[in-house]
């Protein structure tokens, strides 16, 4: 297992090889979600990016940035430092081919990196299942076509969509203001939904999750939050970020 020292302490952080889409702008937010109660990052995230594709945010783009061979190549590009695990931090790219497609990505990454591997959509599904949720509202920045595939991904596991809302954006999702994200989630929610899931690792959510969970009275799970939570769980590390529903989930036994 590759470990690196925590700044200013003798504690060690698991090194995680993180594959993100070429247009990912929220590396810092992912790192912030890893912080412990003292604000120290519990994971050492080592980023690499997919090849640039001059495409708008559509189903076509999601498929282009998630070809298993290409993601495996990205894993190899960061493997020289022997990460303890690898992560594909892209929601649409990991749900666009359904559950079987997500499994294909994990297998390709595992073969390439020879370490545990995770995807954002797999993490979101794991979070929903850990909370025992069977009915969902979804909030996405995408167009209708991608949003429908997001709902279909959960439906394959018997989790039913009760309501949804989307922004219809085709790019520069990272520029969405926090207030617009807050409003989007409120618009997506319904009384029939036990939780709200917010898609896209490029949509800022860190600053609004706690308030949303308080205001809606139910779990609100975002892509970046669940992605980090799943990796922390694997290494037996507690989640201290916003969103108390996931923070209450006990971490697994530490992996050595």
Detailed description of the structure:
The protein is α/β, with parallel strands linked by helices and 256 residues long. It contains eleven helices and nine strands. The chain has helices at residues 27-33, 59-64, 68-78, 91-95, 98-113, 120-130, 144-155, 178-188, 209-216, 223-234, 244-247; strands at residues 3-5, 12-20, 44-49, 85-88, 117-119, 135-140, 160-166, 195-198, 220-222. The strands form two sheets. Strands 1, 2, 3, 4 and 5 form a five-stranded mixed sheet that branches. Strand 6, helix 7 (144-155) and strand 7 (160-166) form a beta-alpha-beta unit. The radius of gyration is 17 Å and the shape is globular. The model has no long low-confidence stretch (mean pLDDT 94).
What is the H/E order?
A: EEHEHHEHHEHEHEHEHEHH
Q: Could you tell me the strand content as a percent range?
A: 15-25%
pLDDT averaged residue by residue:
94
Residue stretches low in confidence (pLDDT < 50, at least 5 long) are none
The biggest sheet, with number of strands, parallel, antiparallel or mixed sense and barrel status, is: 5 strands, mixed
Tell me the number of strands: 9
Radius of gyration: 17 Å
What is the rounded distance between the termini?
A: 7 Å
Number of helices: 11
Shape estimate: globular
- What class do helices, strands and sheet pairing give? alpha/beta
Please describe the structure with a list of short key phrases separated by commas or semicolons.
256 residues, alpha/beta, 5-stranded mixed sheet, 4-stranded parallel sheet, 11 helices, 40% helix, globular
């Amino acid at each position: 297992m590759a470990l690196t020292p925590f700044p200013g302490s003798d504690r060690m952080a698991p090194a995680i090889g993180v594959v993100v889409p070429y247009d990912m702008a929220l590396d810092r937010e992912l790192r912030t979600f890893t912080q412990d109660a003292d604000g120290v990052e519990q994971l050492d995230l080592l980023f690499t990016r997919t090849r640039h594709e001059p495409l708008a945010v559509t189903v076509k783009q999601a498929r282009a940035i998630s070809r298993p061979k290409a993601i495996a190549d990205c894993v190899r590009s960061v493997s020289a430092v022997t990460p303890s695990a690898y992560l594909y931090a892209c929601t649409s790219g990991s749900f666009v081919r359904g559950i079987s497609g997500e499994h294909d990505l994990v297998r390709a990454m595992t073969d390439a990196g020879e370490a545990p591997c995770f995807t954002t959509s797999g993490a979101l599904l794991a979070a929903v299942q850990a909370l025992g949720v069977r009915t969902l509202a979804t909030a996405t920045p995408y167009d209708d076509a991608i949003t429908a595939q997001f709902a279909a991904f959960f439906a394959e596991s018997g989790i039913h969509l009760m309501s949804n809302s989307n922004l219809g954006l085709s790019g520069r999702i990272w520029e969405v203001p926090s207030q617009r994200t807050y409003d989007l989630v409120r618009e997506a929610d319904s009384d029939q939904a036990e939780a709200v899931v917010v898609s896209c690792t490029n949509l800022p959510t860190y600053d609004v999750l706690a308030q949303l969970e308080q205001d809606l009275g139910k779990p609100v799970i975002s892509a970046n939050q669940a992605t980090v939570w799943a990796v922390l769980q694997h290494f037996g590390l507690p989640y201290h970020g916003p969103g108390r529903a996931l923070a209450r989930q006990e971490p697994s036994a530490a992996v050595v």
